[in-house]
């Protein structure tokens, strides 16, 4: 748990002070404005469903992806993820067993290099909520 909190603090630029994770988060969040990381839960890569781990491996390998929409720009219209310029986020399908279509599960990664994302997020409910993926 502490490892995940520490990783999230480092990812957002927050500090760990005297064992108190992200002790300065409230001050930095207001100073950073739209760049502040929303209060997202985390999920370890190893805790993703098997199909999610496969999708994450494909992202790191640069494909090939099973769906034509994989790797396309994710607009973040829900504004749940940190605000970034259009084109920063890309979405990838996590296959859903027994689903006749793409299903609701996705991994959304952000960064300038798709194979080496700055951060990835998992949603099991088609963008209604997200989990920050820790490795």
TrEMBL record:
<dbReference type="InterPro" id="IPR000026">
    <property type="entry name" value="N1-like"/>
</dbReference>
<dbReference type="InterPro" id="IPR016191">
    <property type="entry name" value="Ribonuclease/ribotoxin"/>
</dbReference>
<dbReference type="Pfam" id="PF00545">
    <property type="entry name" value="Ribonuclease"/>
</dbReference>
<dbReference type="GO" id="GO:0003723">
    <property type="term" value="F:RNA binding"/>
</dbReference>
<protein>
    <submittedName>
        <fullName>Ribonuclease N</fullName>
    </submittedName>
</protein>
<keyword id="KW-0378">Hydrolase</keyword>
<dbReference type="GO" id="GO:0004521">
    <property type="term" value="F:RNA endonuclease activity"/>
</dbReference>
<keyword id="KW-0540">Nuclease</keyword>
<feature type="signal peptide">
    <location>
        <begin position="1"/>
        <end position="31"/>
    </location>
</feature>
<dbReference type="GO" id="GO:0016787">
    <property type="term" value="F:hydrolase activity"/>
</dbReference>
<keyword id="KW-0732">Signal</keyword>
């Amino acid at each position: 748990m502490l490892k995940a909190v520490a990783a999230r603090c480092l990812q957002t630029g927050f500090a760990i002070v005297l064992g108190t994770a992200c002790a300065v988060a409230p001050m930095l969040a207001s100073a950073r404005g739209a760049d502040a990381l929303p209060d997202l839960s985390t999920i370890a890569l190893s805790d993703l469903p098997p199909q999610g781990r496969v999708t994450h491996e494909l992202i790191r390998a640069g494909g090939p992806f099973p769906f034509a929409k994989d790797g396309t720009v994710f607009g973040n219209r829900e504004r749940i993820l940190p605000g970034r310029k259009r084109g920063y986020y890309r979405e990838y399908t996590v296959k859903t067993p027994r689903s006749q279509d793409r299903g609701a599960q996705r991994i959304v990664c952000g960064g300038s290099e798709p194979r080496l994302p700055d951060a990835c997020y998992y949603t099991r409910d088609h963008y209604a909520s997200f989990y920050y993926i820790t490795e």
